[in-house]
Structures are given as structure tokens and as C-alpha cells.
Amino acid sequence: MSPLLNETHDPALKSWVASANLAGADFPIQNLPFAVFRRKGSAEAFRGGVAIGDQVLDLGAAGEAGVLGAAGSPAAVAASAGGRESLNALMALGTKHWSALRTALSRALREGAAEQAPLAACLVPQADVEYTTPARIGDYTDFYTSVHHATNIGRQFRPDNPLLPNYKWVPIGYHGRASSIAVSGQKFARPVGQVMAPGAEAPVVKPSARLDIELELGIFIGSGNALGDPIRMTEAEDHVFGICLLNDWSARDLQAWEYQPLGPFLAKNFATTISPWIVTLEALAPYRVAFERPEGDPQPLPYLDSPANRAQGAFDIQLQVLLQTANAAKAGTAPHAIVQTSYRHAYWTVAQMVTHHTVNGCNLQPGDLFGSGTLSGPTLDQAGALIELTTGGKNPISLPGGETRTYLEDGDTVVLRGWCEKPGAARIGFGDCAGTVLPARA
Predict the structure, then answer these.
(1) Of 429, 338, 420, 353, which is closest to residue 384 (Cα–Cα)?
(2) What is the rounded distance in angstroms from the CA atom of residue 17 to the CA atom of residue 28?
(3) Calpha distance 5→221 (Å, rounded)
(4) pTM above the 0.85 mark?
(5) Could you list the active site residues?
(6) CA separation (Å) from 438 to 265, 338, 409?
(7) Helices marked H in 295-342 — which ranges?
């Protein structure tokens, strides 16, 4: 057994919450992701919870029931921290407490557990809750970790030299806007900004006509580091609490005009949608895969390299994009899948992102969020953005009902989904990450 696997990963485990045992369920007992919730439409305080089947286990109530460990134990301390209005306090505790809480939850939620009666009173149906962002996000950094995405985009603008010379040496990123990040269900107005039409003498201010998606993962930082103290590769994953889905909506026409010389600005800061559930790195342990570079590519510099990262630094997370037009929604037609790919194709790993971000002494804090960047696969049908799928709008994609899209139209809803499955391991999922485009405001 891998040293990263333990009793909580046993695929034979079943829960006394019957819905957690259903085939294809996102939230079996082997997952146990975290979110912040309250009863829908209520004035209750938001608090931390854990998904089990179609229920949310109220962490604060579970902690008060005293069934997740003796007072003062790492599991009990973690449960108390996790039951607050955000997960920042839990994130700050570190791997010892996270793992202790996961083990305690797993044992208490298993079939035959003595804790069933007191914990049953702490469950709330997911159908009856609403979510907020799971942490106070102090800073948000968006990376560019897919070489396939970078190449596809570069080829549209620099056919003879699609990749810039630094790409294969350094994890590229930019600092984004944390205030416009919201959980699944986000509805936002089409952004307005400056656009320079080809051949025009001056830009105009108008609603974006090239509104796009970016299929990404979000990486939540747990325990931070002191200003000036870089995080080494061997320690990097100890500073990561978990992973969620992330859609970094992008206005390509605004971006084309503004991005030089300092990078994205209004084209990106109007909305970012994340899934409410954070899947921990511990839950993802069965789905680790080797980090590999294509033959002939430069190997990472020593500070971005480690034996553990090479052996199992990547994750095989299946990712899917679905699109539902306003007409499809009115007709009751389900969202239509337009892309499927895997996070295993990323050029840089989670550990490398953390290490590079801090090599200059930058201090990370609990609740900081990284975006992975658009996660495109090696073939165009695995592209994680419409600008790639449609080759810059030249080749529309076909949808059910005879509709087509090059870029998003008002009323469109985009849903991201993610899951992990393989023989010999329990399937786990991330839930949905959905957002809807509204008309631009006058």
C-alpha cells in the first residue's frame, strides 16, 4: 500500500448514510469534502460542513455532540474550527489536524458505527441548503499550467512560435481579483470594457461579444508561511488544504486589447465561479500519477523538482464542461457535454505552483486560492476554452436543438464537473460548478 493511503481509502467501506453508497455518487465515505452552508432561505449563520451522500454533516453540531474525539484532541479541535463561518481556521491547523478529523469522520460514518444516532441529528439534506465561498480568500493567483492550452492560444497569435521561451521553465501566473469569486450558482452580467476592432483608429466601450469559459481547478492553501520563508518542494503539499472546480470567465475581446504589457485585467476580474466543495489532497491520494515531461523538454530546475513529485505529483482528475442555452433550459433539456479532459495533462503540478509562488519569499495565507489555468488536453476536443474549441470563433460548436456557439450568449449556463475513478478505488466527485451569463447592464 502507498504510504499516502490509509483506512479511509478502503473501497469496501460503506456508510450508514445510504445515499453515500449509491453507484456513481460524488460523495461516498471515501471522499468527505468540506463546504460552508446554511439552510436555504434562512437567516442562520453559515457554518462548515462535510458532504456524505446527499447530506451535509454540520461540523459544529457534530463537534458539540462530542463524538469526533476527546476534548482537545486534534480531531475535536479540527471539528470545532471547521464548524465556523469560514474554513480558514481549519485550513490554518495543518495536515495533522486535517487527517485526524478525516479519520474520525470516516469511522463515525461507517456502517455499524456507535456514533450513528448522535450524528444523524447533525445531517441536513443538500437539497435544503445554500452555500457561500468556503473561505475568506485573501489573495487569488491564476496560473497557466496547461502546455496544450498555451500552445493552442499561442498558435492563433504566433503560428510560427506559439510558446513563449519561458513557458517550459517557470510556472506562469498572475494575481487576480478575489472579491468577484463566488460559488456555484453565480449569475453575472456580461462585462463591459474597451474593445479595439481590427482596423479601427480608437477603441470603444461596449459589452463583450467574445465571452468565454476557462475550465480550471482551484487549489486552496491551508497553513501559510512567514514572509521571506520559501516553501520547499518536499513541504509544498503540506500547505495545500484541497482542490475545487473553478471557471475563470474571460472576455476575449477585452483581453486582446488590454493584456499587453501587464496581463489580464478587466477581461478576467468580473466573475470567477468555484464549486462549493473542497476535496482534500488526502481524499485524492488513490488518484495520484507520475509527473512526466515529454522527451526533449527541459527538466524542472532543482528547486521545482523532488522524487515524490516525479513519482506521484500529478492527479488524474476527470473534468467535463457542459453548456445549457436559455432555449434548452426553457425546453427542459439537460446541459450538453462539450469537453472532457483530465488534470493529469497539466505541465506543472500543485507542489510546483506552491514552491514557485514562494521562492521569492512571498507569504501565503490560509484561504488563499490558486487557479490552475485552463486545463486543455492534447487533442482539440479536450480544450478547456471556447476560443480553442472554435479556433478563435471560426468553427462553431453544434448543440442539441440546432443551436451553435462560438462564444457565450446571454442566458447560457455553463456547468463544470470533476470526478476520479479507477479499478480498485472508490469513485469520488467534486459536485457541480455552475454559472449563468446575464445581459450587460446599461
Answers:
(1) 338
(2) 9
(3) 21
(4) yes
(5) 149
(6) 20, 21, 9
(7) 307-312, 326-330
Residue with cell 456555484: 184
Q: Could you give the CA distance from residue 117 to residue 153 in angstroms, rounded to a whole number?
A: 55
Enter the C-alpha cell of residue 62. Answer: 457534530
Taking phi over 0 as left and psi of -120 to 50 as alpha, with beta for the rest, 206 belongs to beta
Distances (CA, A) of 166 to 29, 150, 162, 170, 240: 43, 12, 12, 6, 26
C-alpha cell of residue 407:
462564444
What is the band of 1 on the pLDDT scale with cuts at 50, 70, 90?
Answer: very low
Give the pLDDT mean for 66-77.
94
Reported for 394-399, long-range contacts at CB under 8 A and 24+ positions apart, including other chains, are 397/338, 399/323, 399/325, 399/328, 399/336, 399/338
Residue 200: DSSP 8-state: -
Are 45 and 130 in contact by the 8 Å Cβ rule? The answer is no
The CA-to-CA distance between both ends of the chain, in Å, stands at 60
| Cβ pair 243, 263 in contact under 8 A | no
Domain ranges (residues) in the chain: 7-132, 140-438
pLDDT given for residue 2 in this prediction? 64
Which amino acid appears at position 413 of this protein?
T
Mean pLDDT across 232-237 = 98
Radius of gyration over alpha carbons of the chain, in Å? 22
CA distances to 149, 161, 174, 264 from 258, rounded to whole Å, are 20, 21, 14, 7
Q: Are 408 and 386 in contact (CB under 8 A)?
A: yes
* Cell numbers given for 177: 481579483
227 Cα distance to chain centroid: 26
Q: Is the predicted pLDDT of residue 357 greater than 60, yes or no?
A: yes
Question: What is the identity of the amino acid at 279?
Answer: V
For 19-53, give the DSSP string. Answer: GGGSTT-S--TTT--EEEEEETT--PPPEEEEEET
* Alpha carbons 274 and 265: distance in angstroms, whole number: 19
Distance CA 173, CA 145 (A): 9
Only one residue has cell 464549486, namely 275
Q: Half-sphere exposure of 403 toward its Cβ, with a 13 Å CA cutoff? A: 19
Residue type, 386: L
Selected from 3.40.50.2020, 3.90.850.10, 3.10.50.40, 3.40.50.300, the CATH number assigned to the domain covering 140-438 reads 3.90.850.10
148: nearest Cα among 310, 364, 373, 326: 373
Q: Give the residue among 345, 351, 344, 353 at the shortest CA–CA distance from 372.
A: 353
| Architecture label for domain 7-132 | Roll (2.30)
C-beta separation of 83 from 61 below 8 A: yes
Are 106 and 29 in contact by the 8 Å Cβ rule? The answer is yes
β-sheet with 413-420: strand ranges across: 186-189, 428-438, 413-420, 318-324, 336-342
